[in-house]
Amino acid sequence: MLTLLITGCGKQRPQDKSLEQCNSVYYWRTDLRLDSTERVFLKQYDIKKVYCRYFDVVMGDNGAEPRPNATISFSDSLPDIVEIIPTIYITEDCMHKPHKDLAEKVVQRIRQMNETNNINNVHEIQIDCDYTSRSRKTYYKFLEEVVKLWKSKVSTTIRLHQLSMPAPPVDYGALMVYNTGDPRKWQERNPILDYRDVYPYLKHLEQYALPLAVAYPVYQWVRYIDNVRVEHTVEADVILKVKHAMEKERKNLSNSIITYHLDKDNINRYIPETYEEIYHH
Questions:
Q1: For the chain, does the N or the C end have fewer beta carbons within 10 angstroms?
Q2: Sequence-ordered list of residues with C-beta below 8 angstroms from that of 255, at least 6 positions apart, any chain
Q3: 24 vs 258: CA distance, rounded Å
Q4: What contacts 214, CB < 8 A, 6 or more positions away?
């Protein structure tokens, strides 16, 4: 019986280590400034965390060393009850080879920005990178260094195609369920989100060895193709269809929901009932 008990405990799945129930949102503008609509949104949907993009890390012009880019300004502050999660986007080519002290530079810059802007009680950071099989090992080593230096909670974004790879060495992943399609085939499928593009990855969810939060798109993508304005927007029923399908495969995916991203136009794009259903636990 002891053997059976030990074996049974050893079969606990990653989703059993569920994240706390939490409604969150990304903030992806270059100046932190909230209008009244956005403040009401945070309160109305009980938003506890804002994943705020602090800066990007891109390869320098000489292609030798990464450098910071598009650093955010802080003209405003979040409500006291909302936790800010500094989020750093790193381009994939920065991870084609190791760069000495890159993790230290990133962590130090986050701390300096917090201190300069009087942002206190920051316990968690997130790193965003569309790593591939080529860059994965270098990126995971970089994450290990970030975790040691930050000495608190660290998460990373997970794209759907990354679900088939070994899980990264962080506390949890934020599964980005957007930009799922090929932008060149926009006439066939919505490049932001289409259930047919998500479906092949559902089989990886149950056994993925990392707790997951999930981010859904509420934004519009406008571009000009052959001088014609093309608008990409995801219908509410598509978001909810994907959400229900994913939670069927891994039930606790409803615990920690993120929307991308906080903006007055995005808020007004959907009726309140849609946001209530997206954030429903």
A1: N
A2: 18, 19, 20, 21, 22, 213, 281
A3: 5
A4: 174, 175, 177, 243, 246, 253, 256, 257, 258
Chain CA centroid to CA 43, Å: 21
Pairing of strands 66-69, 47-59: antiparallel
Tokens of 148: 């040691």
- C-beta neighbour count of 9 within 10 angstroms: 8
Residues for the chain: how many in total?
281
DSSP state of 69: E
Q: What is the pLDDT along the chain (281 residues), one digit of tens a residue?
A: 344 333 333 344 555 456 889 999 999 999 999 999 999 999 999 999 999 999 999 999 888 899 999 999 999 999 999 999 999 999 999 999 999 999 999 999 999 999 999 999 999 999 999 999 999 999 999 999 999 999 999 999 999 999 999 999 999 999 999 999 999 999 999 999 999 999 999 999 999 999 999 999 999 999 999 999 999 999 999 999 999 999 999 989 999 999 999 999 999 999 999 999 999 98
Q: Which two tokens stand for residue 280?
A: 């429903």
Q: How far apart are CA 138 and CA 62, in angstroms?
A: 20
Q: How far does CA 71 lie from the centroid of its chain?
A: 18
- Write down the pTM of the prediction: 0.94
Residues paired with residue 52 on neighbouring β-strands, in sequence order: 27, 86
Whether 47 and 23 have beta carbons less than 8 Å apart is answered as: yes
φ and ψ at residue 261, rounded to 5 degrees: -145, 175
Taking the CA atoms of the chain, what radius of gyration do you get in angstroms? 19
User: Quick one: how far is CA 36 from the chain centroid?
Assistant: 25
The number of CA neighbours under 13 Å toward the Cβ of 37 is 9
